């Protein structure tokens, strides 16, 4: 390591006013000795660290751009293939398709239309740049402090020597102070300073916090009409996952947390999501709410009736407005049933057959039908998902198929069946929870209390809430390692719903934006610090893409590289020592 005295030795001092005469030979020799080399006079424009940070900016922007435009491009392509002639009259379908593609490509690069690319670039690229500059600043501050301490020590020694001098000339001579030296530190000098591990982690946390805060504030500035809370909640969930790994590793909390914590998170998240979908779907992201509606196969009129029972717009045994009174009468007519079975004024409670939408009278038979229907639909969803690895790496899949065809096919089909059974059970449990409350719990309550209840009590929130709570236990069908990923998938959506429920209209926009910025910045700081210094605490599904964008090697590869370097250093040291022993001594 270069000492501070070595650096001070190269510091230029102020030249005296009266220069001495030198001979040409001495002048030429001195000038040649201080002339810097071509490498020193022409340093590289960008350091390798800065080039790496710029690559991170490009990669993160590209990934954000792909995430923003790929779904829209696929949707545009599918729409063109299915309905190629659905364009304005007199317009070429191919030209309309090209214009639509160009519009999607242009919107993906616009910060005001879709700022995900800018969000990732500022968060990740800005983090790498800030970390580089902060590391240099901290090293420079440490080195300058060391130099200042050494200068003060030298001045004290000179003062002590001057005080110890007893010559009269020294006492009568005027006091002179040496001109102040201007210290210039090079990259080579800064490279000699090694920061502690704790200091490096603090620099990483500070850099990631500042860059993430700047990114979310940029989004608020240029996209004020677009919600960014889904990005923030995704970061919060991933940061909580890192904290969960730390808690399990250090054995904080009960022992069941590692095994069933994901199940508890999934159950509570699904209860919040499904309850919001039943009564206020605006609290959920639009595409997600639409997908739930499609998978539930619940008639919209029945869903409107459940919501009307909760908010009081539907009253049994009372007259209702025409648009309310005809909700279930029209449904009964479409199902081939007696319209009187859906007349609110004539009935005190809904028939189970109406709730079952004419499928069956028995609640158990209806639940079995819903399960079978959900399994068939889910198989069409999950079979391509489990075949995707074979499509991405067909050579490896063919090798496995040739080596053991029965095991390869059976594992794929079994995984598809397991995932399909999970989703089918999820759907069936929602229906069975509602039916259990209506046909078993409420009749028992009537017998115990002796009171007569109408559907305004029976079909209120408790039955749907029971179904929303039960459906989450279907995750037990999946393998344990899949449960955590599924919990992390639904948790941001549940938090989105809770955020909309709690924060909507209660705080000013500025306070809400500030809270979201702090939440996003702290979460990204935890996630990026874990990625760099506690890689084993970050889930592998996040390590791949995030590590590629940040140019971070995988945990195993990084460990192998360290071991290889240690072995190389040990081998080099052994060879040097062996060479020193075999070399004859000069003084022998």
UniProtKB/TrEMBL annotation:
Low complexity bias spans: 19-36, 154-178
Family matches, as InterPro entries: Tmem135
Biased composition (Basic and acidic residues): 562-575
Positions of transmembrane segments: 203-222, 260-278, 371-392, 413-434, 461-477
Residues covered by region (Disordered): 1-41, 154-182, 559-588
Entry keywords, A to Z: Membrane, Transmembrane, Transmembrane helix
Source organism, top-level taxon: Eukaryota
Protein name: Transmembrane protein 135 N-terminal domain-containing protein
């Amino acid at each position: 390591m270069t000492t501070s005295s070595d650096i001070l030795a190269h510091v230029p001092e102020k030249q005296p006013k009266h220069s001495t005469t030198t001979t040409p030979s001495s002048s030429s020799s001195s000038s040649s000795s201080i002339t810097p080399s071509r490498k020193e006079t022409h340093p590289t424009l960008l350091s390798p660290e800065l080039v790496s940070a710029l690559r991170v900016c490009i990669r993160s922007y590209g990934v954000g751009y792909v995430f923003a435009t790929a779904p829209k491009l696929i949707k545009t392509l599918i729409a063109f293939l299915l309905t190629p002639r659905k364009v304005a009259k007199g317009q070429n379908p191919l030209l309309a398709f090209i214009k639509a593609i160009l519009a999607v490509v242009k919107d993906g690069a616009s910060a005001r239309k879709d700022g995900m690319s800018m969000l990732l670039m500022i968060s990740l690229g800005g983090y790498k740049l800030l970390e580089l500059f902060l590391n240099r600043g901290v090293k420079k501050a440490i080195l300058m402090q060391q130099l200042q301490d050494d200068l003060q020590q030298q001045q004290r020694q000179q003062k002590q020597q001057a005080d110890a001098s007893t010559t009269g000339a020294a006492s009568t001579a005027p006091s002179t102070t040496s001109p102040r030296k201007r210290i210039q530190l090079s990259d080579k000098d800064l490279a000699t300073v090694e920061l502690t591990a704790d200091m490096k982690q603090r620099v990483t946390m500070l850099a990631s916090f500042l860059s993430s805060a700047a990114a979310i504030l940029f989004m608020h500035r240029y996209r004020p009409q677009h919600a960014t809370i889904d990005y923030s909640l995704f970061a919060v969930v991933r940061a909580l996952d890192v904290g969960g790994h730390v808690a399990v590793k250090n054995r904080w909390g009960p022992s069941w947390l590692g095994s069933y914590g994901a199940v508890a998170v999934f159950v509570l998240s699904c209860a919040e999501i499904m309850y919001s979908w039943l009564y206020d779907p605006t609290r959920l992201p639009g595409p997600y709410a639409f997908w739930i509606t499609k998978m539930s196969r619940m008639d919209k009129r029945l869903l409107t009736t459940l919501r009307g029972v909760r908010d009081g717009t539907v009253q049994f045994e009372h007259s209702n407005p025409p648009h309310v009174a005809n909700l279930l009468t029209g449904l009964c007519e479409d199902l081939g049933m007696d319209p009187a079975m859906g007349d609110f004024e004539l009935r005190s409670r809904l028939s189970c057959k109406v709730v079952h939408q004419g499928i069956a009278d028995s609640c158990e038979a209806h639940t079995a039908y819903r399960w079978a229907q959900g399994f068939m639909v889910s198989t069409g969803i999950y079979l391509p998902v489990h075949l995707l690895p074979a499509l991405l790496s067909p050579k490896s899949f063919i090798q496995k198929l040739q080596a053991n065809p029965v095991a390869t096919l059976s594992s794929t089909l079994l995984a598809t069946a397991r995932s399909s059974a999970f989703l089918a059970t999820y759907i069936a449990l929602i229906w069975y929870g509602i039916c259990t409350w209506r046909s078993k719990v409420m009749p028992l309550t009537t017998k115990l209390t002796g009171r007569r209840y109408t559907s305004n009590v029976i079909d209120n929130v408790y039955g749907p809430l029971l179904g929303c709570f039960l459906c989450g236990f279907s995750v037990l069908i999946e393998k344990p390692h899949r449960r955590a990923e599924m919990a992390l998938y639904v948790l941001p959506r549940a938090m989105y719903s809770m955020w909309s429920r709690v924060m909507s209209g209660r705080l000013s926009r500025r306070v809400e934006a500030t809270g979201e910025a702090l939440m996003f910045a702290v979460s990204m700081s935890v996630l990026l610090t874990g990625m760099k210094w506690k890689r084993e605490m970050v889930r592998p599904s996040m390590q791949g893409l995030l590590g590629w964008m940040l140019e971070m090697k995988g945990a195993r590869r990084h460990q192998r590289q360290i071991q290889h370097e240690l072995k190389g250093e040990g081998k080099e040291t052994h060879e040097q020592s062996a060479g020193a022993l075999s070399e004859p001594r000069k003084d022998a």
